[in-house]
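Ticket #4471: complex job returned nothing on first submit. Input attached below:
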Amino acid sequence: MATTQELRARAKRRKLIVQGILCALTILAIWGAVRSAQVNLAALGITSGFGFLERGTGWDYSFSLVERSINDPYARTLLIGFLNTMFVGFICIFLSTLFGFIIGTGRDSSHPAIKSASTVFVQIFRNIPLILQAVFLYSLLIHFPGPRQAMNLGDAVFLSNRGLMLPGLNVSAGVAVAMLLAVLATGLLILIRRTPLLRGVLQWSMASGVIVLGTALLMRPEGEALVSLPALQGLRFQGGITVPVELVAMITSITLYGSAYIAEVVRGGLNQVPRGLIEAGQALGLTPGAIWTRIKMPMSLRSIVPPLGNQWIFIMKATTIGIAIGFSDLFYIVSNSITQSGQTLELIFLLMAAFLLVNFSIALFVNWLNARLQLKAH
Amino acid sequence: MSFRKRAFGTPVATVLSIVIFGILAYWAWLAVDWAIFRAVWRADNVGDCTKEAGACWSVIDARHRLILFGLYPYEEHWRSTLACLSIILTVILSCFPVAWTAKRLTSLWVVGFAIYYLLMEGSLLGLTQVTTDGWGGLSLTLFLFASVVLLGMPMGLGLALMRRSEMPFVRMFAVVLIDFIRSLPLLTTLFTAAVVVPILLPSWLEGDKIWRVIIAFALFFACYQAEVFRGGFQAIPKGQFEAGKALGLSYWSIVGRLILPQVFRHALPSTINMVVVTFKETAIVIIIGFFDVLASAKAAFGTGEWAPHYLEVYIFVGGIYWLFIFSLGQYGEYLKGRMAISER
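Support reply: We reran it on our side without changes. The output follows.
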């Protein structure tokens, strides 16, 4: 019989050996990958390195928020793709969270009509693959009538096969970005100052309104209207903001899908609020609205935030479906760059790095939000 | 409160009920009218598919073989039909509690998958051989789905066990891999497997594109499933592991006989959810160039004659996905409720 010490030593040895083998295998795999990459790239005649980033691309793509030309270097084109992904991602995160909370509350409602309407919404949009919804919507939109027969909403909003035309503030792009940053900064300030959630949202909406209206009033071109409306001139629309078809399809489909998921997260959170608390509120004569803002939301937010963060990351990742409908998100640009330049490894590295960076930042933000919401020990 | 009181108790509630139910009923009527009453059903009277008519289901009548089986040889379609049924039956059978032991579930899935593969490939049964390039449509989607779940499940279990290991390097390996894959979009992982991995492998190891993509998809599934299993592990008191140790059981006996049966039970509803999500996510393979059900749907209305009827085709394919995902999802919900009751 072996003594206890011997057995312990044996177990320890075994653990070391297992780890050693795993470690060796990992190193071997990495070494093997590097070796074959050298061999294969040499055979294809590709020089590795990031030198290609300064070369011009020579191809065009569908959407950009900033000036672009087909002579842009790869670095700038990739940056535009990254910007597009961020743009769509954050718009969809914002809209999905907003609609998700509304519909999730509807799912929890005691009113049968509200409840069934929200249930129908969730069951339709959650149970069909996102990419199918996106291509469906895209095909539907490109079969819309042209600008002359565009769907017209009060002469201000038009929907045609060229996209969605919206009225816009009469300011330059630079001012618009500054305005957006100011709005975001206010939001962050309110978050940091630990204002109670609902009062915070209210303050933020009001501050945003003041910022937007104020800058628009101050910065508009001399003698022009505050708002520029889209209007049909010949075969196309002038003025206002034109949202291209691809972008409409992207934002709508991701938002519908994302809000169906977030609605389920919100419903799960609301379900966890103890019945007694709600009944106590009713006994005190609180209105349903007050019960929602004072009891249900504060209580359930703690269990909503962690899975909500996962949904935000999911939405960010979902922007990669852009390639299926020709929207130039980061994945689209990277995939195109790989076909055109052959710098596969470098480009896929940049793509992964970008997503890791963004998703880890979202995760960090959610962790911080979560820590802020935890109950303090008295 | 009764339905009547909740719906018509106060004036506001009454107005809401009338407006919302009215809109829903109106939409439902529009949909039914378009899809059934004014629809054209048979392929022989395509001429009836005018702008005024409703849904033109003739396109499905004419092209359903393409949508379901892709470019699989026409006279061999009975094989694809049986193969698809085998996978669907496997999924349905695994929903019955009788099947819920590790051995039975594993053999069920291995047998179901083997039947599928033998029928589709054919050469081992003495039928005409059809290689994976010839597979397509719904049968390819089901193939991807079944192989990802079958490969991914043991990988996920392995990763979950590695993540709980006492050995720091093993644990670190699992944590880094899981967090890395989970932070990347599925499309990036699959794209890497299809396009980048051939560069990183010597040519004798490269294999078929479809298998590289399946392995990458299985890895993605495994990383999420590992987190599901982790939740199951956390539900089991530490004392049980220590009790097993005190009885002198080996690590594998403790894990295999004591812990895992309970972990599976706890993880079942989330596992079903994961399986449903995987089925839904298979639709993304169209982007890396596979002829799955979405790609074959696009091909079905791609030619001139049927081009105006893209809507019907998408609705048909969406309906297939919806039926499968909705029913499995409802089953998962039911199971969750049932388990919550039995634990009380």
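The mean pLDDT of chain A is 88. Closing as resolved unless it happens again.
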